[in-house]
Amino acid sequence: MQVLQEASDTKPKRYHIRFPQRDAHDLDQDEVMFTFVDGDDSISLRFHDYDKIYDHPGLYEQVFYDRLKCTSPQKVGEILKRTVDASGQHFTELRVLDLGAGNGMMGEVLKSRGVARLVGADIIPEAREACYRDRPGIYDDYYVADFTALDADTESEIDNWGIDCLTSVAALGFGDIPPSAFLRALQFVKPGGWVAFNIKETFLHSSDTSGFSRFIRELIFSKYLDLFHLERYRHRLSMEGVPLYYYALAGRKVADIPGNFVSSRAIE
Fold first, then answer.
1. What residue numbers bound the domain in which 6 lies?
2. Angstrom distance (rounded) from CA 47 to CA 60
């Protein structure tokens, strides 16, 4: 316990970060790159090279929260609590699965608001390692797993947590979490449980024909989810300082979602 406390009290390392001078407006968010200096090394990474970013303590926070002013964990946590409170239920009784947990930014928000149980999940081991390094004790357990191909033991363990809330922040779309993986996570939430996540604003536009966009629209208008809150907000700034807008959603799972929800709608 003393070692974990010392780790959490360590002052975050600071890096010299450079964004490219050229215009990146024509690049998708997952294609944008930045350069940072660590010791004698100058390293260039894409914004979505999470495994490599997490290897450097404090780099993720410095890029996305200090420089680009990301607000999403606080926003999604805020609307989830407001929605649950308005329903007459107790937020502190929630048993949450945080999908795409990364290094624990959303988990930290949920923990500060007093959820009963908090389970993290991500597909890359570097995320769990960074979370245990930077935010020890945030999650009751943390699974490194591919939710499109969960083994029986992992399914059983997650199911035993009695999940009644799913969160996912800054992790949906861009190929990070495919529709079938998000669906599998939703299936762990018991009927009557809660769902809160954020998505890029274009995912709700009919002109966006990507698989994930179609999946989200199908889900919102399905009989399986009641939408309680939908809010457009500034997710973060682009590296040019232009606001990037997302939607934050909170809803209640009404009924069990069949396993063929994605395939029956020809969504990939």
1. 2-67
2. 9
